[in-house]
Amino acid sequence: MLITETRGMSMVQALSKFKGEGGNYPDSLDKLAPKFVPAVSKCPGGEVMAHKLSGAEYTLSCPNVVFTMKPYTYDSKTKAWGG
Hints:
Elements: H1 2-22, E1 50-54, E2 57-67, E3 70-75, E4 80-82
């Protein structure tokens, strides 16, 4: 899970910078590269991180990394990782 968090936090920082410039989060993580990150981070299994917007908040997750029966997910509202 440490790999997921490390890779995810670079996406969290890039999302914050994107929002700082434009006022909103992007609808796709692809819009972060190459200006805010060299490339979209991948999950340990090689899949691109999942990203879901919900109003002014978002989640990032790796569907193949499971924690307590759910994908390991970062929630921007709580600023924490969990399952």
